[in-house]
């Protein structure tokens, strides 16, 4: 049986560039981990596709998944719910794949208490004005919603202290390289490598 895959959790305030960095990461040819598509009650943005960007559901459907115990974590973010469907994560990890999640901080902390051996990475912006500029530049939210997200960001950023790693997203390619370095070295941690290694070591007979 293959070793259970690890969980890699990327968080950071809205607009910092999590999606941009994740897409650049997954475009690299040597990436062998799986992306967990989140579920949300938010309406799709132009161009977003159900089952690719998110699983878009109603509030009732979302609550039903919670009742059935099918969410690894979930959180209310501004006016909508977001969460990680558990069956996909379990299946991939059981098959030995590492699974990559892109989620906000409250959900990440729920996972931290359930899966302390996960790898928790906080992506952070060069400054609040730069963050606001990115959200305005993305052009997907109204100004009042951007203001709410920025206010939330100011409370989220100090929560980086609860993560294993902080990566500054000043340049996308640099952030991608840093995340790849983190994942490569996490795979070599003694507690991940030793059980398999010892099992295969055998004796001298
Ligand atoms: N390093 C960067 N420098 C300048 N702009 C960036 C950088 N990274 C991302 N951006 C831009 O910032 C905007 C927000 O990026 P993105 O949508 O990836 O953020 P996000 O953290 O995934 O947001 P959300 O949490 O709301 O989904 C996009 O327009 C993107 O092109
Ligand atoms: N706790 C979770 N947060 C999630 C999940 N999927 C996305 N997110 C975060 O929500 C906000 C807003 O996202 P947006 O797409 O409306 O801009 C952002 O911080 C996302 O990272 C999830 O499954 N769980």
Unreliable segments (pLDDT under 50, ≥5 consecutive)? none
The top level CATH class name of the domain at 7-36 and 98-203 = Alpha Beta
Over all CA atoms, what is the radius of gyration? 18 Å
Q: What's the CATH H-level superfamily name of the domain at 7-36 and 98-203?
A: P-loop containing nucleotide triphosphate hydrolases
The largest pleated sheet is described as: 5 strands, parallel
- Topology, number of strands: 9
Taken in chain order, the helices and strands follow as EHEEEHEEHEHEHHEHH
Please tally the helical runs, counting DSSP H or I stretches of 4 or more residues. Answer: 8
What percent of the residues sit in helical stretches (DSSP H or I)? 40-55%
- List the bound ligands: adenosine-5'-triphosphate, the ligand Nc1nc2c(ncn2[C@@H]2O[C@H](COP(=O)(O)O)[C@@H](O)[C@H]2O)c(=O)[nH]1
Enumerate the strands of the largest sheet in spatial order, edge to edge or round the barrel. Answer: 2-7-1-8-9
The whole-number mean of residue pLDDT values reads 95
Helix vs. strand class: alpha/beta
Into which percentage range does the β-strand content fall?
Answer: 15-25%
Which second-level CATH architecture of the domain at 7-36 and 98-203 applies? Answer: 3-Layer(aba) Sandwich
CATH topology call of the domain at 7-36 and 98-203? Rossmann fold
User: Roughly how many Å apart are the termini?
Assistant: 24 Å
